[in-house]
Amino acid sequence: MSLTVYAPASMGNVGVGYDLLGAALAPIDGSLLGDKVSIAASTSGVQLKVEGHWADKLPPEPKENIVYQCALFFMEQLNKQDGVALTLEKNLPVGSGLGSSASSVVAALYALNEYFDRPYDKQALLRLMGEFEGKISGSVHYDNVAPCYLGGMQLMLDTQAKVCDSIPSFENWYWVVAYPGISLSTSKMRELLPDHYDKSVAIDFGRNLSAFVHASYQQDAELAISVLKDVMAEPYRASAIPGYELARDALDKLGMLSTGISGSGPTLFSVTDSLETAQAAQAWLDSNYVEQGLGFSHICKLDALGTRTID
C-alpha cells in the first residue's frame, strides 16, 4: 500500500481572531498551495526523503525533520516493527505565515493514520497534530493546524470535547495572499507582543471577533468587513514586516476591503468581492511587495476540503 496526502496552506488569526480563527487556502487557478507527504512500505525503520522547492531550507539530517519524528512516534505507539518510507514535498516556505510547519505535520500524521488503518479518531489526531506543530512554533495553537486538516474557516473552541468547529464563509470573497520572499520566526514575532493588554483592547478584540462570527452566520458581508481588523498583533508586528504598511495603504486605495497579516507574517492577505480588484491587487503586490524569484502571490478562495489523499 502507498498513498500521497496533500495539506493546504492556511492563514492563522485571519486578522480578527488572534490564535482563535484560521482558514485554509485554495488558489483559484487550481494549483495546490501546500505540502505533500507520500508513504509506502520499506524494509525497516523510518526512512525520509525531502524534495520540493523549499526542501533546502529544512535540516539536512532526517531525524531533525518533524515528519520523521511524526513517523517515529506512530511506529512506537503502535509497536510496529515493519518499516515506512516517507517523502515530503516541501512546497511552502518556512517562516512565511502560511502554516508551513502545520502543513508538513498535518500531511504526515494524516498519511500515517490512513496507512495504519486510522488508529486515531478525528479529534485525537487533531490534538496530536497541534502537539507536534507546537514543537516547531514554540507553543500549541490550532489556528493553522485545524483549517489545514479540516478545511474552511475554523473557530478554535479548545474544549474537552472539541478542539474547533467550522463557521460559514463568504463564498464570493477573494483572498489575495502575497509572500514577499523573506522568513520570519513565529516565536520571535510572538515576542513583539505585549505581556499585558489594556482592558479596552480586550473588549475591542472580543467584540470584533464575536461580531465577525455573528456576521458569518448571518452572511452579512458588510458587517464582517467592518470588524475584520486586528487589534492584538498587527499594531506591534506591522513595522517589523518590510513594506507591509505601504502595501496595506496601497491596497486600500485600490479598493480592497480589508488587509491583514497572515499568521505571524510576512505574508499578507487582502480581501475583496471583485475578481477584477483582486487581480489589480495581485499585480501591485507582484511589482511592489514580492521579491521576484523568492516570493509569490495567489488569488484564493477558501479550501473547503482540507487535507486529503491525492493521485
From TrEMBL:
<comment type="pathway">
    <text>Amino-acid biosynthesis; L-threonine biosynthesis; L-threonine from L-aspartate: step 4/5.</text>
</comment>
<dbReference type="InterPro" id="IPR013750">
    <property type="entry name" value="GHMP_kinase_C_dom"/>
</dbReference>
<dbReference type="InterPro" id="IPR036554">
    <property type="entry name" value="GHMP_kinase_C_sf"/>
</dbReference>
<keyword id="KW-0963">Cytoplasm</keyword>
<keyword id="KW-0067">ATP-binding</keyword>
<keyword id="KW-0808">Transferase</keyword>
<keyword id="KW-0791">Threonine biosynthesis</keyword>
<protein>
    <recommendedName>
        <fullName>Homoserine kinase</fullName>
        <ecNumber>2.7.1.39</ecNumber>
    </recommendedName>
</protein>
<dbReference type="Pfam" id="PF08544">
    <property type="entry name" value="GHMP_kinases_C"/>
</dbReference>
<keyword id="KW-0418">Kinase</keyword>
<keyword id="KW-0028">Amino-acid biosynthesis</keyword>
<feature type="binding site">
    <location>
        <begin position="93"/>
        <end position="103"/>
    </location>
    <ligand>
        <name>ATP</name>
    </ligand>
</feature>
<dbReference type="GO" id="GO:0009088">
    <property type="term" value="P:threonine biosynthetic process"/>
</dbReference>
<keyword id="KW-0547">Nucleotide-binding</keyword>
<dbReference type="GO" id="GO:0005737">
    <property type="term" value="C:cytoplasm"/>
</dbReference>
<feature type="domain" description="GHMP kinase N-terminal">
    <location>
        <begin position="65"/>
        <end position="152"/>
    </location>
</feature>
<comment type="function">
    <text>Catalyzes the ATP-dependent phosphorylation of L-homoserine to L-homoserine phosphate.</text>
</comment>
<comment type="similarity">
    <text>Belongs to the GHMP kinase family. Homoserine kinase subfamily.</text>
</comment>
<dbReference type="GO" id="GO:0004413">
    <property type="term" value="F:homoserine kinase activity"/>
</dbReference>
<dbReference type="InterPro" id="IPR020568">
    <property type="entry name" value="Ribosomal_Su5_D2-typ_SF"/>
</dbReference>
<feature type="domain" description="GHMP kinase C-terminal">
    <location>
        <begin position="233"/>
        <end position="288"/>
    </location>
</feature>
<dbReference type="InterPro" id="IPR014721">
    <property type="entry name" value="Ribsml_uS5_D2-typ_fold_subgr"/>
</dbReference>
<dbReference type="InterPro" id="IPR000870">
    <property type="entry name" value="Homoserine_kinase"/>
</dbReference>
<dbReference type="InterPro" id="IPR006203">
    <property type="entry name" value="GHMP_knse_ATP-bd_CS"/>
</dbReference>
<dbReference type="GO" id="GO:0005524">
    <property type="term" value="F:ATP binding"/>
</dbReference>
<dbReference type="InterPro" id="IPR006204">
    <property type="entry name" value="GHMP_kinase_N_dom"/>
</dbReference>
<dbReference type="Pfam" id="PF00288">
    <property type="entry name" value="GHMP_kinases_N"/>
</dbReference>
